[in-house]
Specification:
Length: about 300
């Protein structure tokens, strides 16, 4: 009788970012400080959009959802990473590893698809301004968000199914600070060529196709705005440029990590830190810093509710 999907490994050992204890403590305080300041900032963005009726447009609805996705995405990795800095032995169960892999790719892909939805929103706002609120109704916006989450789920469940097919009987040491598909493939003791190929195709389709589609769409919009004579041209151009900055910040490390062969490079961990911890929390901040309306709303919210809003 053939047995499949049987794993003799019940847990994985993580090597973390560095073996030096002093550096680990320094990184713990650095990331804890960053997390404690930037995370409330993202929550404040969501509260501002929710409480201020001046920000009831589809663009801010998508921005609030982006902030929520980024908070969830960072929470998959950051809490355990911070705890592991203080532990001599860094472990994660097999089930925990699969869960971390799933939610990392589920939320990451959902965010990529949400950026496509935001690009559609900008296209309608710039090219069909008179029909904007009709075409981008709340139902349509909710549908686009739902499609983004569904697409992320399908992408992630495929990766988990591929990882679950692997057989682990030897090394259970993952050379990283979190559990991801490439690290899991490297320690499997069965032939991984088919899984590697399917993983590469799955990641490549989601990441590269989304990246090319987004840059092409915003390039077309910028060309259209260049020939436009409307009074809102400057504001629309600034918004498009901000979206392009976020796209580059988000996709560049993802392309580096997931659209190349799985052989490890020395810089992989550094890129992974920026991709999973730093950049996601900074994305909504980039939108906010270049948006006068949301900054004014934040100021009004603080003046109206005082310190209790921040607390």
């Amino acid at each position: 009788m053939n047995q499949i999907n049987v794993s003799e490994v019940s847990e994985f050992h993580l090597l973390g970012l560095t073996p030096v204890k002093e550096v680990q403590l320094s990184l713990f305080f650095l990331f804890a400080l960053f997390y404690s300041f930037v995370l409330p900032g993202n929550i404040f963005i969501i509260l501002t959009i929710y409480l201020d009726h001046h920000l009831a447009s589809p663009m801010y609805f998508f921005l609030a959802n982006l902030s929520f996705l980024d908070i969830c995405y960072c929470s998959v990795i950051s809490p355990k990473m911070l705890a592991d800095f203080l532990r001599p032995h860094k472990k994660i169960s097999y089930g925990g590893c699969m869960a971390q892999l799933f939610f990392l790719h589920f939320l990451g892909a959902a965010e990529m698809f949400l950026l496509i939805a935001m690009a559609c929103d900008r296209y309608v706002a710039i090219c069909k301004p008179l029909q904007y609120f009709h075409l981008m109704s709340r139902n349509v916006c909710c549908m686009l968000v739902g499609v983004s989450w569904t697409g992320g789920f399908i992408h992630a469940i495929i990766l988990v199914m591929l990882a679950h097919q692997l057989h682990f009987c030897g090394s259970n040491v993952l050379d990283n600070f979190f559990c991801d598909i490439h690290q899991v493939i490297r320690v499997a003791c069965t032939d991984t060529h088919r899984v590697e190929a399917l993983t590469f195709i799955n990641n490549g389709l989601v990441i590269l196709s989304s990246f090319i589609l987004l840059l092409t769409s915003y390039g077309i919009l910028l060309l259209k705005l260049k020939t436009s004579k409307t009074l809102e041209r400057s504001k629309a151009t600034s918004t498009c440029v901000t979206h392009i900055v976020v796209i580059l910040v988000m996709f560049t490390p993802a392309i580096f990590l997931y659209t190349r062969p799985s052989e490890p490079l020395s810089i992989d961990k550094v890129v992974a830190v920026f991709h999973t911890v730093i950049f996601p929390l900074l994305n909504p901040m980039i939108y906010t810093m270049r948006n006068k309306e949301i900054k004014s709303s934040m100021k009004r919210l603080i003046e109206k509710y005082g310190p209790q809003v921040i607390l």
